[in-house]
Automatic annotation (TrEMBL):
The keyword 4Fe-4S does not apply. Residues 190-312 form the Mvd1 C-terminal domain. Keywords: ATP-binding, Lipid biosynthesis, Lipid metabolism, Lyase, Nucleotide-binding. PANTHER family: DIPHOSPHOMEVALONATE DECARBOXYLASE. It comes from Thiomicrorhabdus immobilis. Its EC number is 4.1.1.33. It comes from the Bacteria. This is diphosphomevalonate decarboxylase.
Length: 320
């Protein structure tokens, strides 16, 4: 028999921060110490379906990832169930959640961002809330900070906000298209990261003296990149994004115990990019909580990039 149970569905893209979120002022509400700005990658992301479980005997959520049912004590399933606690109509309401990721989970490619954005969209559909983007972004932020930015295509800006209740900390789309804008994914290693971003942020905030300089620098970088997007000034955008990522990684490295997401191949790729720049190729990189690089360049440099990095995956965020 076909189930009469309503199914809610949602899908959302991954996003890459050009100026990063690193550090929480409130770990429960995922309130950041600084604003951040990202570009979404349509075609890479998460599709989620959710339904209420009918059976009285079912006393847990059923979570599956890429077609595989997860154990209750699986870290991903636990985190999803914890997030769903915000939305249960009664303590006895349980959900079935099916998640399909087209990105490797926890490989520094921000699958949690697209994941919680897609889950919130699926909940919005299931409960017929008809929420606006601001409210959807606020809810997605509760699942994973960077998810607040994954409700949008193109560039998005997540406001730091000042309020203790977090109601002013949400993301908005930046209304600009830039058809020539390219992002290259250079996969170094897709294994699960050794330190989660939540844990990494906490350790950094608590033990890294350099971190004090971060929030101000990050907010300034965000404004510089916002203006560069409006001006289509690629050199300023690339330079600021790369410097921002390296500054974030500098605070991680100066944490105790040290957090070094880089692999030798990551550093090798950085040097290759710097050499290309010396040769006149306008390419910059950014990196998140993992060893992989994301290259930033304009369409005119595509041939040079493909020649230099044979296995790179190139995405054109404004062309799909
Ligand atoms: O949203 P989280 O908790 O996965 O943190 C994301 C942190 C970075 O990816 C390193 C930076 C960012 O702004 O996306």
């Amino acid at each position: 028999l076909a189930s009469k149970n309503k199914i809610g569905s949602g899908s959302a893209p991954v996003n890459i921060a050009l100026s990063k979120y690193w550090g929480k002022r409130d770990a429960t509400l995922n309130l950041p110490t600084n604003g951040s700005l990202s570009i979404s990658l349509p075609g890479l992301g998460t599709k989620t379906q959710i339904e209420r479980l009918e059976s009285q005997n079912q006393q847990t959520d059923l979570v599956s990832l890429n077609g595989q049912r997860l154990d209750q004590d699986n870290a991903f399933a636990k985190r999803v169930s914890q997030f769903l606690n915000y939305f249960r109509e009664t303590p006895q309401t349980f959900f079935k959640v099916d998640t399909e990721n087209s990105v490797p989970t926890a490989a520094g490619l921000a699958s949690s961002a697209s994941g919680y954005a897609a889950l919130v969209l699926a909940l919005n559909d299931l409960f017929a809330w008809n929420l606006d983007n601001k409210s959807l972004s606020l809810l997605a932020r509760l699942g994973s900070g960077s998810a607040s930015r994954s409700l949008f295509n193109g560039f998005a800006l997540w406001h730091q906000g000042q309020q203790a209740d977090g109601l002013d900390s949400y993301a908005e789309a930046i209304d600009t298209t830039w058809p020539e804008f390219c992002v290259g994914l250079l996969e170094i290693d897709v294994k699960q990261k050794p330190v989660s971003s939540t844990q990494g942020m906490q350790n950094t905030v608590e033990t890294c003296a350099l971190y004090q300089a971060w929030p101000q620098q990050a907010n300034q970088d965000m404004q510089t990149i916002l203006q560069a997007i409006k001006d289509h000034d690629f050199a300023t955008l690339g330079k600021t994004a790369e410097h921002n990522a390296l500054t974030m990684h500098a605070t991680m490295i100066a944490t105790w115990p040290p957090i070094v997401y880089w692999q030798p191949e990551s550093v090798e790729a950085m040097h290759k990019i710097w050499r290309l720049r010396e040769q006149g190729v306008a390419v910059y990189f950014t990196m998140d909580a993992g060893p992989n690089l994301k290259l930033l360049f304009l369409e005119t440099e595509k041939p040079a990039i493909l020649q230099a990095f044979k296995q790179i995956k190139i995405l054109e965020p404004f062309k799909s």
